[in-house]
Design brief:
two-stranded antiparallel ribbon; alpha+beta; 60s Ribosomal Protein L30, Chain: A
Length: about 160
């Protein structure tokens, strides 16, 4: 029995502290060199957040915000890998295995291309699967809206699960 989950996340980007409220820009567990970063309670890794929600959604579990509230002190600055690992644990606990994860990161800059292989490898490692089951695509927003103006990062993810 197959299950599909969709995940989505959007984070505002601001200059990195002390110039602003942004944290270092981390996507897919990989820190990118950039002068802007996400404003968020955890480390703000929008890619891992969206994958987490896709996995949780596929098994009908609460979303990332319900499991790891942004007003909980223990989640302040927390590594988003923790969220993804918990989602993967719940997938296995529900009797499923992850077939594949397909992600689209929409970010004006920096470009995702040079970092895709490292992101795919880190995500696969966190999920305990082969890198061939993880895809990451980068898109720009062609200077349209907050994403296109470099003020936000947006991520869409679909995940396919199969009954183990």
């Amino acid at each position: 029995m197959l299950r599909i989950g969709h995940g989505y996340d959007l984070h505002r980007l601001e200059p990195i502290a002390p110039a602003g409220d942004g944290r270092p820009l981390v996507l897919g567990g990989i820190q990118l060199d950039h002068d802007r970063g996400p404003v968020g309670h955890s480390d703000g890794d929008a890619l891992l957040h969206a994958i987490t929600d896709a996995l949780l959604g596929a098994i009908g579990e609460p979303d990332i915000g319900q499991l790891f509230p942004d007003n909980a002190p223990e989640n302040e600055g927390r590594d988003s890998a923790d969220f993804l690992i918990e989602a993967a644990r719940r997938v296995v606990g529900a009797g499923y295995s992850i077939v594949n994860v397909d992600a689209t990161v929409i970010l004006e800059r920096p470009r995702i291309g040079p970092h895709k292989d490292a992101m795919r490898a880190r995500i696969a490692e966190l999920l305990g699967m082969s890198v061939g089951g993880v895809n990451v695509k980068g898109k720009s927003h062609e200077k349209v809206d907050a994403v296109g103006e470099g003020r936000a990062v947006e991520v869409h993810v679909v995940a396919l699960l199969d009954k183990a």
